[in-house]
Design brief:
Shape: globular
CATH class: Alpha Beta
Strand order of the largest sheet: 2-1-3-4-5
Number of helices: 10
Order of helices and strands: HHEHHEHEHHEHEHH
Radius of gyration: 21 Å
Length: 223
């Protein structure tokens, strides 16, 4: 019996040691992406733009817009709203901006991190607004780009409808809470209510011409 107990104890120790060696060192929310530049910010920004690849690509394509208007871009390609809630304190709150401009949700619809209902996606956006408000930062909500399809998720056949539903939730919430809205869905849409083909190559990500229209709409709201 003692030998059995000792053997079981030894096996438990071995398993524990193996698990300890296999602990993932995964920066799930990607705090590291902006950790260095966050530490170098010395001036209070007018606004932080929180988002995914659309915001990420915006800074890449037109950095002068951000610099000229005292804006920080904190978009990370591929991220869903759950990632953004987790990194919101480091990438937004710690900078004490006047505004946080939130453009998020298309990757949730694309199931980049698995299935999430529109209600829970919207709940994450609400959580970011509540964190901002608690820290005296004014939320500015953005409607999603009016995407007709998602190139990397061709199995989804109701992208346009889901985007429209989430945009309606965002507008209703903003109205009820007296938050400003930047209506990119209207700015970028064609006569069918889809992203204009001359403003995007894949219906999701704006090109520079698309970003220029977005910039004009954003400045009308925050300036």
């Amino acid at each position: 019996m003692k030998r059995v107990i000792l053997l079981a104890f030894a096996m438990t120790l071995c398993a524990t040691a193996l698990l300890a060696q296999d602990l993932p060192d995964n920066d799930w929310a990607n705090f590291n992406r902006y950790s260095k530049v966050n530490s170098e910010v010395t001036v209070r920004p007018l606004a932080v733009l929180m988002g995914d690849s659309i915001t990420d690509g915006w800074y890449r394509d037109d950095p002068d817009f951000f610099k000229a208007n005292n804006l920080l871009g904190r978009g990370i390609s591929g991220q869903v709203t759950s990632h953004m809630v987790v990194r919101f304190r480091r990438d937004v709150v710690d900078h004490h901006p006047k505004y946080v401009v939130i453009l998020a949700g298309i990757n949730d619809i694309a199931r980049n991190n698995g299935y999430i209902s529109l209600e829970n996606t919207f709940g994450n956006i609400v959580s970011m607004c509540e964190i901002a408000k608690a820290n005296k930062i004014k939320p500015v909500l953005c409607t999603l780009v009016p995407s007709a399809y998602i190139r990397w998720r061709p199995a989804l056949k109701d992208t346009k409808e889901q985007v429209a539903r989430l945009n309606a939730m965002i507008k209703e919430y903003a109205k009820a809470n007296h938050y400003k809205v930047v209506d990119y869905a209207t700015v970028l849409a064609d006569e069918k209510g889809e992203t204009r083909t001359d403003l995007s190559g894949d219906s999701v990500h704006p090109n520079l011409a698309g970003y220029k229209l977005m910039e004009e709409a954003l400045l009308k709201v925050i300036k």
